[in-house]
Write a structure and sequence with these properties.
The chain has 677 residues and is of the alpha+beta class. 48% of the residues lie in helices and 17% in strands.
């Protein structure tokens, strides 16, 4: 559940001790209770070790990322849920169209086929009650309610009060007892109560379309659709009522709009079109007046239609369109003013034309591609836990895989994640350069392109999940050992089962290359060239095949290849790699030409890379100064208990190891939490 958290900063705690003259008393308390605190710490460490076991980690990870679903229950994003929402939505549309027509345009006898069709739709909505009670999970603000007992109870307390009225089989009984025509149509008015839930059915359809397809239905487009759909439904209803008022009664014949308009001998389809036409121009307040309004009931209906149309069309639709246009105009005005001010500044300061073009291109990218979304503002507006989960999605696995952070346990990795910030690299920006200091590391995401070049001049593309920066590559080099050989792979052919844009990742997340377009494989392409450390006479290299599908990178399969040592580059090995999915299914094969040669004397053995952004690249940045301060805090935590308290409070306040640069504290948090068990 939601909870309130109270934080007590270490400098505020030490200042409180000083203000109330409690420093000596606090140290005496630590001395007296050191054994109790140490035993408590030992119990906590034991609990942490138990929670760190492989089975417990799998259980905790599964509980975080998966929703426990009872067999046969459909989650909101599942195909079954989407299909059922589509069926019930079409059923509501059938009710909206058919019931007014059955009342207004009824014949003397209702056909059996029409009755059976009505009975089929009624049966679907009877089944919908069962689905809502036992099969359809409910999406709540706090999460997904997937237990049938819970979402069944929720349904009985909310929507069932209308649904139970629509279940009354009055129309079926009326038909069996001989009711036909308008009387049968009036008996079906109870079923029209189902339309109350059409908004939820439409919401399920929209969510399913957004999740399961490349379409993105925005809130603005959905509101416009709802307004237009409401207008069409009202036009249909008022048109049917207008036709019903125009039918000449045999007991009291008189002139109605049908008689005056000469429509008494026309078929029902022509009459419906004429009444729909009257309703449309009346409810939109256009008022052509080509259809006569004769009787008093017809005039009363016309006035009610115009009043409702003034609210829906003039006020509702105009307000929605004005709001959308106003938001676009406001943003366009802000963008235009920002660009004009920037142009004026660059002209007055005599900025180079090439730099001016880059700056204007940056504004064009933020306006058109990013839609002026500020990632820092978005993450800052979320709660710390939700913001951390977003960063974890991109950075957790890369940080755990990097040798720079091998010294940290799981909790420290999460502390690092809280320090990472979104970073937008512009085209041509150099993130790191060989021989120059680099005070940050960057995690590459799917949005962008980073090109790396080593000391030998070989260029490759960093793929998603790569960490670039001298500190990270240096740590990886120390872990893997000094390079002794140069590995070179060339792609000959690739036969992969894929529906998207396929690419190959070699060496984990270090380089990538798209397969050649020619099917004969006559053109080889360099896809990997790097200095590696080889202890034996061969080197094992892992490959992963991925594809771009629905604007996301999906793993197709992995494989492994063993390259023997070669004395010259003139005798490479022809290698065939089988690509298999995680389930073991063979997804295809790749043919490679590989060579592994010892490094020549005098070869440059630098771990550093020059990393340059080729496009607007969305990264996550971690400053090494933050990592060093966090390391100091964890080192201080290994000291004896009394040694962790500074000798003088003034010195403690000056010690930057207790705080970040923005003043937030590392060491002490006082929390009040309410959590779900």
């Amino acid at each position: 559940t939601r909870c309130e958290t109270f934080h007590l900063r270490m400098d505020a705690f030490l200042k409180g001790l000083r203000d109330f003259n409690l420093e000596d008393e606090f140290k005496r308390y630590l001395s007296v209770n050191e054994s109790v605190l140490s035993s408590s710490k030992a119990e906590i460490n034991k609990t942490i070790q138990n929670l760190s076991s492989s089975k417990m980690v799998k259980f905790l990870n599964a509980s975080k990322t998966m929703v426990k679903v009872t067999k046969g229950v459909f989650l909101p994003n599942s195909p079954g849920y989407f299909g059922w929402c589509l069926v019930t939505f079409l059923g509501c549309i059938y009710y909206i169209i058919s019931i007014p027509l059955k009342i207004s345009f009824a014949t003397s006898a209702t056909s059996l086929s029409a009755f059976l069709l009505d009975l089929l739709v009624d049966t679907i909505f009877v089944a919908d009650v069962y689905m809502c009670l036992r099969k359809l999970a409910v999406k709540m603000p706090s999460g997904i309610m997937s237990d049938p007992k819970q979402f069944g109870k929720h349904y009985l307390e909310t929507d069932f009060r209308f649904d139970r009225l629509s279940l009354i089989p009055l129309a079926t009984c009326a038909y069996l007892f001989g009711a036909r025509g308008t009387l049968y149509g009036c008996a079906r008015l109870f079923q029209l109560l189902r339309v109350v839930r059409i908004g939820k059915y439409l919401g399920g359809l929209v969510e399913g379309i957004n999740v399961r397809s490349s379409l993105d239905i925005t809130t603005a487009s959905l509101r416009i659709f709802q307004i237009f759909a409401l207008i069409i439904v009202l036009v249909h209803l008022f048109g049917c009522v207008f036709h019903l008022l125009g039918i000449e009664d045999e007991d009291s014949p008189g002139e109605t709009w049908i008689v005056v308009d000469g429509m008494e001998d026309e078929p029902s389809s022509r009459r419906y079109l004429r009444s729909f036409y009257w309703s449309l121009y009346t409810i939109t307040t256009i008022g052509f007046g080509s259809v006569p309004v004769v009787t008093i009931p017809e005039r009363i209906l016309a006035m009610a239609t115009m009043a409702i149309g003034a609210v829906i069309c003039d006020a509702g639709l105009t307000a929605v369109l004005a709001s959308i246009i106003s938001n676009k105009d406001r943003q366009a005005g802000t963008n235009s003013r920002r660009i004009q001010c920037c142009k004026l500044y660059m002209e007055t300061t005599d900025v180079a034309e090439t730099l001016q073009e880059r700056i204007l291109d940056f504004y064009s990218y933020t306006d058109n591609s990013v839609k002026n979304v500020n990632e820092d503002e978005i993450l800052g507006s979320l709660s710390p836990s939700l913001a951390s989960e977003i960063v974890q999605y991109f950075c957790l696995f890369p940080l755990r895989s990097c040798a720079l952070f091998d010294k940290y346990e799981g909790g420290a990795i999460y502390s690092l994640i809280k320090l990472m910030k979104p970073y937008l690299a512009v085209p041509g920006e150099c993130l790191s350069r060989i021989g120059s200091p680099c005070d940050s590391i960057f995690v590459v995401t799917e949005r962008g392109s980073i090109r790396t070049m080593d000391a030998e001049g070989f260029i490759s593309d960093a793929v998603e999940g790569t960490i670039v920066g001298h500190a990270a590559t240096s740590a990886d080099s120390k872990r893997d050992g000094s390079p002794t050989h140069r590995l070179r792979l060339e792609l000959i052919s690739a036969n992969i089962k894929s529906k998207g844009d396929t690419y190959i990742v070699v060496g984990g997340v270090k380089s990538r290359c798209r397969p050649p377009s020619s099917s004969d494989g006559s053109v080889s392409q360099t896809m990997f060239d790097k200095q590696v450390a080889v202890d034996t006479g061969e080197y094992r290299c892992k490959l992963a095949v991925k594809e771009w599908r629905k604007r996301r990178s999906e793993l197709i399969g992995t494989g492994e290849v063993t390259i023997p040592t070669h004395r010259t580059s003139m005798s490479p090995s022809i290698l065939s790699v089988t690509i298999a999915s995680n389930s073991g299914r063979v997804m295809g094969t790749i043919q490679l030409k590989g060579s592994l040669m010892p490094l020549e004397a005098g070869a440059t053995l630098s771990h550093e890379l020059t990393c340059t952004s080729q496009s607007y690249s969305h990264l996550f940045r971690l400053e090494l100064s933050d990592e060093r301060r966090l390391d100091q805090v964890f080192r201080a935590a290994t000291l004896p208990l009394l040694d962790r308290i500074p000798s003088s409070l003034s010195a403690a306040e000056e010690n930057s190891a207790y705080q970040n640069e923005d003043g937030t504290d590392w060491n002490l948090e006082l929390k009040l939490n309410q959590v779900d068990q």
